[in-house]
Automatic annotation (TrEMBL):
SUPFAM superfamilies: KorB DNA-binding domain-like (SSF109709), ParB/Sulfiredoxin (SSF110849). It comes from Tropicimonas omnivorans. Residues 12-113 form the ParB-like N-terminal domain. It holds the Pfam family ParB_N. InterPro entries: Chromosome_partition/occlusion, ParB/Sulfiredoxin_sf, ParB_N. This is ParB N-terminal domain-containing protein. Residues 458-481 are annotated as: Disordered. It comes from the Bacteria.
Length: 616
């Protein structure tokens, strides 16, 4: 053996042919394909981690830690001898030398037991370096035993400014937060937002909005209506969020222009159908109050009549439809018969009325038809399409001495007097609030408070998620919300006592809690002792089956402190995805499973507290 250069007392460079595998090395049997994959990685990115060994007393070194690396270097020397000429580290690698057998044995065991997946920041840099060296995503995926999709996502992060990767490496931001920065091409803005993120648990939405406050998601109703092609045809810019599988539109003015033009075109088509007028509105909904505010009357379709045979067929199809027993042809037939019943607008109706065209929240074109404008009402009355108002509207009609504005002021004064008086009876105020929140008033209100629903239940799988029944029991609403006797109901409600009133108030107010501010939310959680795992347990249905296999592998290794080559880890990795999801569920929910895998107290505590990224 020729010993080239001693780096220090315990390390030096050694010729590759002087190195051999020590019997102490735990990696005695490595599949050939794994050796080839690692060799490809080393050929592209270099030998990132040195080996360790002990001198054999005959001029050579036995490798106790780094058996896979040794085989990969030997593979390169045999199959790619030119790689050594380009990189001397491959022919004369640095080896750390153990001073004695005891130390060598400790190194062999310690490295094998302490192996972990690369930190995401190190992984990103390694992938990026390999790509710069000419490796394709497929080659990188084989070298690191991951999916190509995983590589593509890491490579997307490899293009981020170094400051973002450094912050990820220092755990100042999470991997999810780092991924958000891929949507930005403005480095100055990226660094500004990065400074705002350090050490803070900002949501993905907050970061993306800070990076691109004007961008619009492709799920916006306007985008769905016009389509991306029409937007791009006007040179609208598009950026993607690879990690959220969404497209962002960066030119809202162009989108609005394309949206308005297409909506106006749809309105013009309606005038060609015979309507007197048609106009477009950017509103996503046209309701009764908007029609009333515009002082328009409304015409309705003239209902059609089904023949006895059609009526019998309609009833038959309707009954089948309620049991989901119709095919596509039957559904089309039912729709056609329903259209006859629904009726049509006559040419005369169209000649006196018009249409408002709009796009709803789902991006679908909608119309509100048969609207008679104020200036067209007289002609519609003369044509017998609408009835004249029963209220006198002529100049000779007696006018009220109290104007509408004054009447409104008087109502406000009376309201103020009531509020002033009720200040002396806070119990009455709380009772009224509780009574309203129980739903017993229907759509009417005693206080200016709206009970907007705050979502607190998963949209798909609720398995493994249990809330207090007080939060999930619906309000007891009256069968006839408009004609119920509120005074009688309120008296009965109060008679049930103060405890009942406060219990109802508490449960309904709790269901309305929605704290958007991060600091306030943290304070509330601290005061209340919020613990997500008290109400939610990850299961195969609600979580594990909805993430990828590599994620499940990494989680299994992390929870049980396993190295990748540990028998428990390798056997898990070979399972099908569904089997992995079921096994992880049992690890979280089944005591016998934890006992079977010798889960320690520390591991059990980790499992009991574990939450996915972004949820903690």
């Amino acid at each position: 053996m020729t010993k080239h250069q001693t780096i220090d007392a315990t390390a030096g460079r050694f010729a590759l042919n002087s190195l051999s595998l020590s019997p102490m090395n735990p990696r005695q049997h490595i599949p050939e394909d794994e050796v080839a994959e690692l060799a490809e990685s080393i050929r592209t990115a270099g030998l990132i981690q040195n080996m360790a060994g002990i001198e054999d007393g005959q001029g050579g070194v036995q490798i106790v830690a780094g058996g896979r690396r040794l085989r990969a270097l030997q593979y390169l020397a045999q199959h790619y001898p030119e790689s050594g000429a380009k990189n001397p580290d491959l022919t004369h690698p640095t080896v750390k030398i153990a001073p004695d057998q005891t130390t060598a044995q400790a190194w062999a065991v310690a490295e094998n037991a302490a192996r972990r997946n690369l930190h995401p920041a190190d992984e990103i840099r390694a992938y990026g370096k390999m790509e710069q060296g000419g490796a394709t995503p497929a080659v990188i995926a084989r070298a690191f035993a991951v999916t190509e999709k995983h590589v593509y996502r890491r490579l997307a992060l490899a293009g981020l400014p170094d400051a973002v990767i450094d912050a990820l490496a220092a755990n100042e931001i999470s991997l999810s937060m780092a991924a958000c920065f891929t949507i930005s091409t403005d480095e100055a803005r990226t660094l500004e937002v990065l400074d705002e993120c350090r050490g803070r648990n900002l949501s993905d939405y907050q970061i993306k909005k800070a990076l691109k406050p004007e961008s619009i998601r492709d799920t916006d109703r306007r985008v769905i209506f016009v389509g991306l092609d029409a937007y791009k045809a006007e040179e609208g810019r598009i950026s993607g969020d690879l990690f959220a599988d969404e497209t962002l539109l960066d030119d809202p003015d162009i989108l609005d222009a394309v949206f308005t033009a297409k909506l106006d075109e749809a309105a013009q088509e309606r005038t060609a159908d015979g309507w007197k007028w048609a106009e477009a509105t950017a509103d996503p909904y046209i309701g009764y109050f908007q029609i009333e505010d515009a002082k328009m009357a409304r015409l309705y379709r003239e209902e059609g009549v089904l023949t006895p045979e059609q009526s019998e067929r309609y009833d038959e199809l309707a009954e089948l439809s309620t049991r989901d027993a119709t095919d596509e042809a039957a559904d089309a037939e039912l729709l056609e018969l329903h259209g006859i019943l629904e009726g049509t607008f006559t040419d005369e109706q169209k000649a006196h009325s018009g249409v408002i065209v709009y796009v709803d929240q789902r991006g679908e074109l909608r119309t509100t038809e048969g609207l008679v404008r104020k200036e067209d009402k007289a002609a519609a009355i003369e044509a017998g399409l609408i009835q004249p108002s029963r209220h006198t509207t002529g100049d000779d009609a007696p006018k009220s001495p109290i104007s509408a504005k004054l009447a409104d002021d008087l109502v406000r004064v009376a309201t103020g007097a009531r509020q002033d008086a009720m200040l002396c009876d806070p119990e009455l105020i709380l009772s009224l609030l509780a009574y309203q929140m129980t739903g017993k008033m229907g759509y009417r209100r005693a206080l200016g408070l709206r009970e907007d629903e705050v979502p607190n239940f998963p949209t798909t799988e609720a398995e493994g998620y249990t809330l207090d029944k007080r939060l999930t029991t619906p309000a007891d609403r009256p069968s006839d919300p408009f004609n119920s006797d509120l005074a009688k109901g309120f008296r009965a409600f109060r008679k049930r006592g103060h405890d009942h009133v406060m219990a109802e108030l508490t449960r309904h107010l709790a269901a309305l809690i929605s704290v958007g501010d991060e600091k306030l939310g943290a304070l509330v959680d601290k005061e209340a002792g919020t613990d997500i795992r008290e109400v939610w347990t990850p299961t195969a249905a609600n979580f594990f089956s909805r993430v990828g296999g590599p994620y499940l592998n990494a989680l299994w290794f992390e929870l049980l402190d396993l190295s990748e080559d540990h028998p428990t880890a390798t056997s898990f990795a070979k399972l099908k995805k569904g089997e992995k999801a079921d096994r992880l569920e049992k690890l979280f929910t089944d005591a016998e499973t934890r006992e079977a895998f010798s889960v320690t107290e520390a591991q059990a505590e980790r499992i009991a507290k574990w939450l996915p990224e972004g949820m903690a």
